[in-house]
Structures are given as C-alpha cells and as structure tokens.
C-alpha cells in the first residue's frame, strides 16, 4: 500500500511539489507565531525595564523591605543585618534570579544637634551603611581620635554648611535624661558611580544621616533608650533573566510575598502588569496579521488539491468499481496527504524559523537588516504548532476525497462541470459581508478617540478592527465574481450573433464554468488587494512615525547640557540660587570643524504661567531662541498635503527678531486667551524645583508678534496618566521669546544645544549621549509592535507575490491539460491555432485580467478606508501633523511587475503546450476515456 501511494505521488510530482510548497509555507507561518510571540515578548519586557529605569531614575528590578526591629530582640547591628540577609535569601529561593547588588541601611533616630561652626537645632540620624567604603569616594577627610568619627554626604555638607573636621554635638536620650555625644566629621563622601545598581537610595536621599562604623553604631545603641532600630533593605536583581517563560510565575510569587508581608515591596510587579497587557495585545496583533495570510495559503492549497483531485477522479472511480470501499479510498488518500504533511512539517519548522528571524530583522517594509535579534530563538511550542498545522492540512486535503468516492460513473459525468449556483451567491453572502464590514468601519470611526485612549492606556486592542479590512477585501472579491459573471452574460447576449466560432466557444466555456472558475478570481483578487494594502499600511505607519519624530525633535540633534545649580540657604530663611553655564564655545567650534552647519541655544521651560485680560493658563511651554541661529539650525517638518502654518515659519522668526520684547504664541493659546497679533500678555516663571515647588520669581509683559499652529519641537497634545492608569488628553500652549531678553529678565537657566549636522555627518562625530531624530527613529523601528507589523506585512507581501505567481501559472497550465481533448476536437474541426489562442486570451481577460484589476482597485479602496483607522494602534496620539496615507510607487511597480511576468510566462507556457499538442493523440485520448 505504501509503495502504491509513493507511485501516485511520483506520477504527479510537479503538482504534489506545489502542494508541498503550500503546506510547508502554511506550517511555517503557523510555527512563526510562538517564536514571534516569545521573541517580541522578551523584547517588550527588556524595553519596559529599561524605560522604567530611565523614567523613574531607579534600578528596574528591585525588592525591598523597610521597617523597624525591637532592640530587645536584636541587640546589635549584625543581628539586624543577618535578619535582612535572611529575607533576601528567602526571596531568591522562589524568584530564582541572580543578585546584582544589595543595599542595607540601619539607623537610630538620633536627635537635635549643634554644630561647631553653624547654628543649633539641626536634626541628624545616626546610620550604618555597610557598603559606604566600597561604593563611595572620599572627597575630603580629617581625623580626630578624641571623639567619634563620622562621614557625611556632599548634600549634607551643602545643606547644613558643614566642613571636614567640624564637630557635631548630638543630644541623645540615655534613659536618665539627655546626653551629649560629640562626633567629628572625618570624611565627606559622594558616590563613585551614582548609576551603580547599589545606590537604590543615594547619599542625597540620606541627607540627614551621619554615617558611622559598625563598632561605633553598636556603641551608640547602648546610649539610646529607644525600643526600635530602623532599617531599609534593597535587593537588586538581574532583570534580563525575567522572560516570557517565568514572568507569570515570578509575578505570582511576589504577589504572595506582599500578601504575607505588608512591609515587603518591589518595583517589578508594575512592570510585569504592563507587560502582561502588552503581551496580550501582541498575541492578538499576531493572529490578526497572520490570519489573512493563512487564509490566502489555504486558498492556494485548496486550489492545488482540487486540481489534483479532479485529475484523479477516474482513479477513484476505478478503485471503487474494483471493490474498494469509500473508507479504503479515504485511508489511501489519508496516507498520501500524511506523507506530504510530514514533509511539509519538517520543511515548515526550518522555514518558519528562518522566516521569523528574517521578519524580526526588518526595520521597515521590505527592509532587512543585520541588527541583533537575539530574543528571537527556537521555542518548543513551535513543534506543537507544527503538528497542529500538519493535522489541519491532512484533514483539509483528505476530507473532499470522501465526497468524490461515488459508486456510479454516471454521477461522475454529471458532476464534471457544475452548473449549480453557489450557496454564497444564492444567499447574497457577499452583499451581507460587505454591509457588515461597512457597519464595523462606521462604528470604529465613531470611536476613534476612545480607541486611541485605550491604546495609550495599554489596554487590549480589538482584533476585529484589524481583520475588518480582510473581511472587506473578501466580500468585495465575492461581489466582483458575481459582477464578472453578469458581465460575461451581458456581453454574450449583446454580441452573441456577431461572434466568430472561436469567440463563441470561448464564451460558451465561460458561461459553463463561471461558477467553478470563481475560485481563481477570488484567489487573485485577495492576493493583489492584500498585497497592496499590506504595502500601503506599512509605508503609512513608518512614514508618519518618522515625520512625527522629526517634527518633535525639531533639528538633527540635541544635547542637554549639565548645569550646576548652586543653592545658598541664608540664616534668615531666604534662599539664593544660580546656575553655572557650561562653555558654549565648544559647540560653536563644531561649525568651524565642518561637523555642523548650525548650532544654537534653546532655553526651554514647561512651568510657565501666562495671563492676558481676565484669562490665564498654567504649565505653558516657553522656548527662548536666537532667531538667526535658530533659523539656521531648526527644521519644521511639514504636513504631506500642505504646510502646517499659513506662511513659512521663517516669516514668524523675522517678526520676532524685530521685537526684542515680542513673542510668538501657538494658535491654541491665542484662542484660549482671545489674543491676536499686537496684543499684550504677561508670563511668569518659577524657581527651580530643587529650591521650591511652587514659587514664582519673575514676570514679564510682552507683545504678541506672530501666531503659529506648528513650530520646531512643539507638540500641541500631551497625555497624562493618573494613579489608576487612566489617560487624559491635554493641550500644550507655546510661547517663543528672544533668548537675550529672557536671560536678561529671568537670569541664566538650563538650555539645550540644538544642532544642524553637515551633510554626511552623524551624531557619532560629536558626542555619544546626544538625542537625535535618527536615533529616536531607530528606537521606534526596533520596538516590538512596529517590528511585528513591518515583519508580518513584509512576509505577507512576499508570500502574496509567490503564491499568486505560482497559483496563477499552475491553475492555467492544469486547466489547459484538462481541456486537451477539447482543443484537439477544435483543431480537428478546422479551428486554427491562432483562433485557439484568441479563445484562451479572451478567457484570461475575464478570468484573470479583470480580477487582477479588481484586486488593485479593492486594495486601493481598502487603503483609503482602513489605513487611518488601523493607524490608531501605532499612532494613537493627536499631533500637529495628521495621519497621511502613503502609497509608494515602487511597491506598486514591484507587484505589477511580478504579476506581469507571471501572466507573460503563463501565456508563453500555454502557447508552447498548444504547439506541442497533437490532434491524433488528443482524439485517441477521448476514445480511451
């Protein structure tokens, strides 16, 4: 039996190889899912941890415990430290991650203190920090063996006005009253590397602590009558070891820690909660993006398997006539499909791994790179998915055999050409699905704002929103098949009497087989329309993201200088402060070196109050610029359709240059305060937050000289998230003033350095810690969501080209083979070869060219209808630049070129087959059948 099955496969090896290709691609796309999901999940997890570190300025994987212990239970410092180490050991027994660092601090409450050179009534806490000598540098030192030695931080020195060698007289309770203990400041310390994971609490956070040795700390415990000793323990873990496989397990353990110990805390669970939400979104996105391609491959496999089954109908009838039961025939074909599925499974796993790695390496549509994709590795779930896909393929290929296993040859002859109208055409399924797609589109468009907020709140997306375009394409394809049939009938009725014999035979064939041939039309339409939509969706997403980033940055590169803030606390309670400006000359020299074409200072402040008349706004955005330098350096990314502003933005700079006390304001600020050009307004600025959170120190009255909708670096819309994770949209108001005027009125405050790089230069030619538009674009391209979208759209587009070309060519070649007898009869009746070719060309016009044109039209229609809606997933924020649809001519030419080649090759192959066809053999074939 097995040998018989092998021989059957060999007899139609080319068809079976095409079927194997389709099955292998289906399984490959199927097994891509778990690998893509796990790889993208690990990438998201790493990104979330790094974002947390950047935004919160703390190590992103930290467990902690803070509280007090009774001195009666823990009489010395070592017993407390041992207890804390016990907690750390218990935590890492369950959360099996390598320890990066650990910071343990124990303190006594201290008390009021007098300083030798300063004033009285300062409050200090006595602390012991075991890692102080290892992780801190000594700035100044002075020893005094007559008293207890202590160390303080630079922050403590600056705040209390202390110096090395100065004595601190601490008044502590000793059970019988107050006792004075003298400490001498022997060391003034600062962190060796403030970014070291050890510094969960920095020395600045411990500003009122005087650090002593362990022996001195134990001795101090003897003087105190207090019952408790305070402690804090921070354990930093290697977050790179948390991945999609163990994240849920570790999250459960940490939740149990918190339930069992109210003093336990960590900053990992919040990150994991965000990850679980995004992971769910990634899963839905993957299925939504894969499903249309899977359906396309199923159509391809169905088309090939149907052709094979059609050619083997006689074999099935012979087997049945010789006594084989329907079950035996079914088992025979089950073995045949099983062999193909097994081979496809082996090839699919390898191909799926390669496809997933290739898709992950994209940083744009059809743009493959050599970037690091280490998170995308082989996972055992791929084997499970491969087996599941293989089983689906076996059933999909084999089940139709059961229906073909008829007992009577008469049934076979009756079913060769089906004239029965399909169920979908009878029930108007195409119209119903098209109406459903339009209804979903209408509803989603009405909910755009809500959907955008849901995306910003990291809620799960609705996959139907992504699949609606596929539903539209499928329904439109069915509708086109219906209309094509009506066009064929109409043309036949109008010109039937004028047709030549060849044309008459052609239309007769079209009318008889239009229901059977509809499958090819649907396949072609979905392939072409899907390819066009995938290309346009990917281009639109990438182009809009890049343009928004370029607009937000406002120039090629920005360097945020480190300004030192000096604060002086006076005895009368007042505070003086000033910033030390770094050397700006080193940036101006970049122009002389040919690295930059423009360099300028841009002073920015987002804590500005503005008032005019009876109206006012707070938290406005101030930019102070040198108009000439700014014009040479900054760039304003314009909208695709028109400029954002009514005139070129240089005109507004010219107006500002004419008015030293003038300002440019945003259109939303003008609307909020009822301002127009020539009006006056007043704006106020606050002291640095390090000095006071809410104190205005200066105000200025200015004249409005221009009103703009967009300006380099100005984002009109911002989004704030509350404690519950709810996102609210807010508008930002812009005010642009002259740099010299602002510095004169408000003093020197931190500014950033904007740069316009010379042609061929990159940020690497300047400093490595620059913020540049290109860096942000690269980071955005490497985000998991964008990478998945680019990768899947690229794969879908390539598979569409391959499947469409192979499917189209194979279908027509097999159709020609099946009609060999018919063509032989036509030739025997006197029909010329030229007329046979004309007949086939006419059939291709209605069955191939019209569907291909319809597919192009449907793809463009789907682009216009759905691209802006689906872009909400990737661009949920409102922006000065709206979402514009981008259609790249190169993508359309690539698709058209491949289809043209496929059609041309098909026609050449058909011509060669017709020429090689012999009338006598064809007629003898008819006699044998």
TrEMBL record:
Its main location: membrane. The chain crosses the membrane at residues 14-36, 284-309, 330-355, 378-402, 423-442, 471-495, 515-533, 791-813, 845-875, 895-914. Residues 294-404, 797-915 form the ABC3 transporter permease C-terminal domain. InterPro entries: ABC3_permease_C, Macrolide_Exporter_MacB. It is a multi-pass membrane protein. It comes from the Bacteria. Keywords: Cell membrane, Membrane, Transmembrane, Transmembrane helix. It holds the Pfam family FtsX. One of its GO terms (cellular component) is plasma membrane. It is found in: Cell membrane. Belongs to the ABC-4 integral membrane protein family. This is FtsX-like permease family protein. The lineage of its organism: Bacteria, Bacillati, Bacillota, Clostridia, Lachnospirales.
